[in-house]
């Protein structure tokens, strides 16, 4: 792992743990208040709604970093071994470009959604859209890292694979 991957994973784990812990504490406190006093915190529904996108995006990026997404390998197994490395590099560069394009488009919408405020806390809607942009940028960085790793991988021989290599499933 390189510095970029470690930074992305560390940041996503931090977002994941903080958002999960805050959501849990708020929901437990609000439930206790509701049963003990019959009242609840006015803002207790808004904070989990604001943090949930950060939790989900962190999980998406972590899954990508650990290769835990669904993959299809039949195309790579169908092409000649000499083309696999070039195809991997080109594919990862296209993926990185698409993530960059999506992140840029999301950033263009931040001004529009900034005026939408949550009812009680008045938090701008750009906060949740910002998490999508940050997550897409992180996914783009991971795709660039994968392209770089494919570039550094030596070219494969022309020998057919005895058995297709599939990543281990993460349940």
TrEMBL record:
It is found in: Cell inner membrane. It is a multi-pass membrane protein. The chain crosses the membrane at residues 12-32, 52-75, 87-106, 126-144. Coiled coil: none annotated. The complex comprises the extracytoplasmic solute receptor protein and the two transmembrane proteins. Part of the tripartite ATP-independent periplasmic (TRAP) transport system. This is TRAP transporter small permease protein.
């Amino acid at each position: 792992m390189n510095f970029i991957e470690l930074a992305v994973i560390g940041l996503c784990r931090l977002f994941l743990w903080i958002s999960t812990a805050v959501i849990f504490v708020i929901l437990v406190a609000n439930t206790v208040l509701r049963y003990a006093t019959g009242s609840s915190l006015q803002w207790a529904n808004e904070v989990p709604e604001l943090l949930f996108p950060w939790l989900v995006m962190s999980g998406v990026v972590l899954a990508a970093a650990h290769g835990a997404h669904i993959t299809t390998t039949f195309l790579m197994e169908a092409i000649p071994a000499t083309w696999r490395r070039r195809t991997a590099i080109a594919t990862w560069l296209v993926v990185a470009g698409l993530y960059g394009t999506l992140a840029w488009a999301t950033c263009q919408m931040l001004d529009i959604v900034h005026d939408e405020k949550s009812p009680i806390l008045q938090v701008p809607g750009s906060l949740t859209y910002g998490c999508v942009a940050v997550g897409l940028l992180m996914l783009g960085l991971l795709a660039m890292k994968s392209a770089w790793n494919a570039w550094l991988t030596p070219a494969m021989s022309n020998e057919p694979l005895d058995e297709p290599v599939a990543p281990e499933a993460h349940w």
